[in-house]
């Protein structure tokens, strides 16, 4: 018998977790659930936190060092990275605008938000203390904080992820600048470690159905207590949150990218989407930019008429560092969780989310589940309770499918823009949709 795909296993785990939580509230198994089931959810969260730092460090070093001959590709490379970073910042900003307008986390009743706030009162107090300490610092202190004084100390603290990202960028750039024969063994080492890290992520994601079950069971029990009707409120609010995320992703894929394609890429809206459609569908079904990459390259070359020299550089790099959909989702999810816990984030904190989500997207692996790992980083950097990730894991698989589609579409869009500005965009061949 064929084994169920992981996304179906996660959805089943989600449904069973909710059902168990509801039943436990009705039948008086609350204490049993909290003592014997919820801890497995905590273990799952710890596994995500465990892999976060090495995933970012190694993925980012390999991504930057893949530029290889920087003298030949300096113009194309700088142009590509600039556009990638620009679209990512735009996506994160769009997510923040939408989540602040619609306030999905505030759809929880005031009483429930007060419960969350009390549950994590110590975190909130600590955040307030940190904010007061920041007020005593100079305007350039955030810049100072990004540069580590001891990288090994930063590697042991998930909250210092910006320092890890800074070091990885510096290391990757230096790796490009040394003689290729000296850099080759180092590149091989990190590529090998990167494969190991991705395999660990794969192993962790195999436990996701059980982790989601335990998290959802514990969350529903925590939320509902002796009043199972309260769980209905949770499901409605999660639906509202999903609509906000999907609205942001739809804006990127149906408004932002088409505008770039039409006005800069000088290509018809319909032609672009017909050309990239096979890659979009594969991205939707696999939730993996890396798995979709061969199809994305084929569609870009055959259907969109982009020169192979551009696609062979821009698209693999995009699969590593360009995660517009993931970044938008992280921005919405982070603010949603903060709102659910009654934590008010000022403009500086939200700008910090923009920076962290943008830089973290550079180190996000192009595999299912990596976005969740990156969200842990964003939450920790912003001082938002990481436990709140349980609130958004239930619908995450469906959202992962949608945001991966946006990621792949964004890669193809940037490839087209770079090809147009380099004079390497030619009339496409007959489009194949099979």
TrEMBL record:
Pfam families: SDF. It comes from the Bacteria. GO terms for molecular function: symporter activity. InterPro entries: DAACS (IPR050746), Na-dicarboxylate_symporter (IPR001991), Na-dicarboxylate_symporter_CS (IPR018107), Na:dicarbo_symporter_sf (IPR036458). It is a multi-pass membrane protein. It comes from Pontibacter akesuensis. PANTHER family: AMINO ACID TRANSPORTER, SODIUM/DICARBOXYLATE SYMPORTER-RELATED. Coiled coil: none annotated. This is Na+/H+-dicarboxylate symporter. GO terms for biological process: dicarboxylic acid transport; L-alpha-amino acid transmembrane transport. The chain crosses the membrane at residues 12-37, 43-62, 83-102, 160-178, 207-225, 237-264. Keywords: Cell membrane, Glycoprotein, Membrane, Symport, Transmembrane, Transmembrane helix, Transport. Its main location: membrane. GO terms for cellular component: plasma membrane. It is found in: Cell membrane.
């Amino acid at each position: 018998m064929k084994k169920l795909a992981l996304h179906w296993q996660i959805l089943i785990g989600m449904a069973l977790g909710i059902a168990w939580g509801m039943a436990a509230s009705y039948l008086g198994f609350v204490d049993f659930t909290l003592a014997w089931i919820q801890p497995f959810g905590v273990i799952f969260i710890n596994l995500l936190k465990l892999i976060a730092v090495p995933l970012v460090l190694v993925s980012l070093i390999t991504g930057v060092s893949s530029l290889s001959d920087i003298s030949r590709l300096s113009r194309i490379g700088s142009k590509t990275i600039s556009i990638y970073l620009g679209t990512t910042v735009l996506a994160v900003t769009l997510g923040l605008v939408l989540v602040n307008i619609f306030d999905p986390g505030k759809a929880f009743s005031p009483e429930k938000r007060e419960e969350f706030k009390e549950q994590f009162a110590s975190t909130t107090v600590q955040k307030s203390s940190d904010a007061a300490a920041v007020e005593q610092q100079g305007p350039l202190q955030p810049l100072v904080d990004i540069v580590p004084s001891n990288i090994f100390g930063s590697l042991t603290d998930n909250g210092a992820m910006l320092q890890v990202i800074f070091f990885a960028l510096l290391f990757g750039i230096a790796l490009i600048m040394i003689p290729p024969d000296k850099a080759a063994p180092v590149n091989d080492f990190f590529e090998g470690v990167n494969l190991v890290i991705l395999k660990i992520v794969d192993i962790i994601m195999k436990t996701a159905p059980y982790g989601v079950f335990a998290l959802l069971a514990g969350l529903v029990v925590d939320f509902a207590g002796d009043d199972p009707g309260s769980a209905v409120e949770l499901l409605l609010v999660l639906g509202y949150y999903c609509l906000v995320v999907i609205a942001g992703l739809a804006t990127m894929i149906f408004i932002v990218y088409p505008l770039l394609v039409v006005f800069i890429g000088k290509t018809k809206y319909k032609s672009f989407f017909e050309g990239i459609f096979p890659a979009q569908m594969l991205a939707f079904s696999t939730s993996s930019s890396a798995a979709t990459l061969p199809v994305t390259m084929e569609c870009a070359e055959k259907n969109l008429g982009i020169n192979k020299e551009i696609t062979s550089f821009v698209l693999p790099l995009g699969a590593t560092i360009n995660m517009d959909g993931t970044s938008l989702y992280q921005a919405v999810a982070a603010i949603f969780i903060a709102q659910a816990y009654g934590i008010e984030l000022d403009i500086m904190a939200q700008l910090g989310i923009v920076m962290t989500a943008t830089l973290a997207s550079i180190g996000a692996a192009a595999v299912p589940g990596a976005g969740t790992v990156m969200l842990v980083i964003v939450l920790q950097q912003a001082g938002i309770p990481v436990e709140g990730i349980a609130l958004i894991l239930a619908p995450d698989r469906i959202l992962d499918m949608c945001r991966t589609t946006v990621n792949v579409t964004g890669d193809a869009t940037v490839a087209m823009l770079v090809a147009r500005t380099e004079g390497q965009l030619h009339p496409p061949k007959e489009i194949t949709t099979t």
